Amino acid sequence: MTSDTRRRTVDLRAYPDLVVIVLGMQVRAFAGLKTLLGFGPKIARSVAEQPEGLLLHESFVFSLFPPHVGMRQYWRDFDALQAWTRSDPHRRWWRDFLRDSGGTGFWHESYLMRGGMEAVYVDMQREVGFLRFAPQQPAQGSMFSARGRARAARAAEPRP
């Protein structure tokens, strides 16, 4: 009997500094539906502009109740990802969100090919990802920025 299964893999050698980031927004209050729906077109426009270093963007739904949507992005390297997050419109979105989360919670987890992982969770009603099993701590000091969190994760890795 032969198998019709088509098993494939990928060669990532051309992407030594690849960063995969998974992001999510969860509705915590009725007003959060408006916030969530308002971000869809903004994100679509931003992706359509093809930011430097963004290789792929995918959207998906974690749950319908409570509404919790997400996206996964593949970036050429951490510097390209950070350059985009520090520029408009992202910089503005993040500043405004931190002032008023609009009835939603937000999170992201980043996985770096060169080593290290980092995450941040803001106003989440339900715990997700690393938050469900890893010790929690405030995002302060060296843990305030994504670069600082990734550096701390790499430093904590056991050495051969």
Shape: globular
Number of strands: 5
By DSSP (H or I, 4+ residues per run), the number of helices equals 4
Structural class: alpha+beta
By CATH reckoning, the class would read Alpha Beta
Q: How many structural domains can be distinguished in the coordinates?
A: 1
For the record, give the distance between the C-alpha atoms at the N and C termini, rounded to a whole number.
44 Å
User: What is the CATH architecture annotation?
Assistant: 2-Layer Sandwich
Biggest sheet character? 5 strands, antiparallel
Oligomer: single chain
Overview of this protein structure:
29% of the residues lie in helices and 28% in strands. The protein is globular, with a radius of gyration of 17 Å. It has a five-stranded antiparallel β-sheet with strand order 2-3-1-4-5. The mean pLDDT is 92. The protein has a single domain (19-156), classed as Alpha-Beta Plaits, CATH 3.30.70.100. The protein has helices spanning 31-48, 78-85, 90-99, 146-156, and strands at residues 19-27, 54-64, 67-75, 104-112, 117-122. It is an alpha+beta fold and 160 residues long.
